[in-house]
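W.,

You were right to be curious about this one. When I first looked at the sequence I had no strong expectations either way, so I just let the prediction run and decided to look at it fresh. Below is the sequence, 151 residues in total, followed by the output.
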Amino acid sequence: MAKQKLTVTTDAGTFTRTTARTYTHIVVAKGARHEVAEARRQANLQSLRDIVARYRKTLVTGVDPTDRNEYHRAQTARSIADGSYATWIPEYDARIAAAEAVAPITEDIGTTFGLVGWCGRADLAVKLANTEGAQEYRDVRIYALDGTRVR
């Protein structure tokens, strides 16, 4: 099947795709929810704290609890001996300090619409718009290929 260029012009912007597939709808979104972004920021911060805590414990005990086999245990021993853990800890402490210095995210992110996906049927567009990923945005819209807003 020959490829065709699809262009959808909507009040949310113009979206283009070259494809051999048949599409009937697009899903677009903007305004990443600030509560989701802040939760991710906090999760990342906690992950950094967990890593540096594990490194500190490994440096003291000589054992990394996440080592799965003899190869990993040997690598941990080499990293302790060559001073890698001793350099990683202050690096992670600096990353944690930088992450903690950032103010909490209190406003939605993004003022322009981005494409979530192209769909071949209206029901698939609704399904895509209702996914967890799409629901991370404040404004999710569905358009037919003629530019008519469906939802």
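Here's what jumped out at me. The beta strands are 4-10, 13-19, 25-32, 114-119, 137-144. And, maybe more interesting for your project: Residues 34-61 form the longest helix (28 residues).

Coffee later to discuss?

I.
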